[in-house]
Design brief:
alpha/beta
Amino acid sequence: MVPGADNERFTVAVQHVDGAVVIELAGELDHDTAQPLREALDAAVAHGGRLLVDLTGLGFCDSTGLNVLLHGRLSALEAGGSVELAGLQGSVARMFRITGADGIFPVYADVAQAMTGTNGPPA
């Protein structure tokens, strides 16, 4: 767990799995809760390599959350890494689809498929 990354509405958990940094999000990602994700992405980018953001537990994401993820992606690319998404569903998947952000990130149905590099049906 990232220090300060747990509150009543949003949590961020970070783990290292098979050479990737997996950032698991749960709850509501918005202007008021985005700082722990910024911190987790900055730390993961500094670590380098592949970042996988698990959105399975994310029930809501506004434009602030999307912008944090987009900024993290650009930072990772500049550092020679990548940001990939897993578990897009519901209103979060719809927001990514409407904005076209689902075409910017590699998107996997779940973390297991991301780790094997296979993709299931569209979210």
